[in-house]
Amino acid sequence: MDARVTPAAPFARSPLSKGPTLPLVVMLAAVPLVAVLQFRAIALVTSLGLLAMVVAGRRVTGAWPWPPIGPVVGAALAIAAWTMVSAAWAPDPMRALGTGLRFGGFVLLAAAAAQAMAQEPAERLALAGRTLAAGLAIGIALAAADHLSGNAIRAAVRGLREAPPWLFFGLKSAVAVIAVLLPVAAAWPRLRWWARGLLVVAGLAASVMLPAESAKIAAFAGILAMGAAWLLGRWGGRLIGLGAAGVVLVAPLLTAAILPRLPGLEAIQPSAAHRILIWDFANQRIAERPLLGWGGESARAIPGGTAVFDRETLDRFGLTSEASRIWFARPPAQRLPLHTHNAALQVWLELGAVGAVLAAAMLAALGFAAARLGPGAVGAYGAALVVGMLSYGIWQEWWIGMLLLLAVAIRAIQGPRNSEI
């Protein structure tokens, strides 16, 4: 988002309660807590908060903060447009159309919110940075307390006297939020070094303790990516962005080359083995429609996706024990339960090679933008990449909202005023 030069005086004269910083601060304080208590509410919190930022910017300046279309926003809008076009052949055309519209609208809303922050006074941007760090610290503490209490806190929020077994898994999303926020706080120069160190230690310790294997990896990957940006300068973020783009472009080929060479999967957790089998099934369906894909949101309606894996597939991956047969015979162990748990494969499956090229362009542009914004942005980008490649569906609105809030916050507290996103 290339910040247009506008007079800063209206922002400097306006009280905090009327400017766009206040909604941003509220979101940064609330989202880590919401991630622990009910992560799906992040979609609502970020939608309302970003809208409030845009309205506040309009109230202060008298003009709507129309965002310029930089490389990242342009690529994201192209993905939204292609998703809507894919409604012509998608299994559920209205769902594909609606998803493309919502995604494009969400991106434009975040871009406008970032534009609204472009001329906020420096002391308000510092307040946003301090709030991000404080919210992250409280979120880490709350997640750890809930885990150590046997999820009693989250059960109480839901009006339950005892925590049911399934509630245990809800903390996975909280760890993902911690993973992407941690590098931003750790790299913020206005936070004392010992506070940054404590946040890193606490965040990594919480990620190890809590139930989220992919988010654990993401938390450490984010800190490593931040370190790479410190060592390599802007080339750290650029190389990560180019690498991510390359992985997306060749994802089906990589999957086809690697999966048959894996050792038997009996030694790993059934849920991890299930994910690998999902990737294998998705790759088979990608090969059937490689150019255009099956259409937006088609992962939840791919032919054969709701069936369980046959014995031949289990044998092929070395899942021959009685325990594995029983686990994979359960109805939840579907061949494609809603999405692929891999962003690159889901893009190929739904949007084909055209969508993959657009997604690769967006990821490369994001890497270059993160490089300009500093090590914290590169670390957050690295963590988000790991989460996207191992966990959530690409259209999950709470996760999109989280990443857009993250981009707006980083642009405000770490980026130079003339940076493009």
Tell me what the structure shows:
The chain has helices at 9-13, 21-37, 42-61, 71-85, 93-116, 122-148, 152-157, 171-187, 193-209, 213-232, 234-249, 251-258, 270-288, 311-316, 322-329, 343-373, 375-390, 397-413. With 421 residues, it is mostly helical. The N and C termini lie close together (4 Å). The model is unreliable at 1-9 (pLDDT under 50).
Short overview:
With 421 residues, this protein is mainly alpha-helical.
- Residue runs with pLDDT of under 50 for 5 or more positions: 1-9
- Roughly how many Å apart are the termini? 4 Å
Helix content: 55-70%
**Sheet with the most strands, sense and barrel status:** none
Average pLDDT metric? 92
Beta-strand content: under 5%
Helix count, DSSP H or I runs of 4 or more residues: 18
Counted up, domains total 1
Order of SSEs, N→C?
A: HHHHHHHHHHHHHHHHHH
Extended strand count: 0
Shape: globular
Question: Could you tell me the radius of gyration in angstroms?
Answer: 22 Å
Helix/strand/pairing category: mainly alpha
Keywords: Ligase, Membrane, Transmembrane, Transmembrane helix
GO molecular function: ligase activity
Domain O-antigen ligase-related: 218-359
Transmembrane segments: 24-57, 69-90, 96-118, 125-145, 165-186, 193-210, 216-232, 239-259, 345-366, 373-392
List keywords for this structure.
globular; 421 residues; mainly alpha; 18 helices
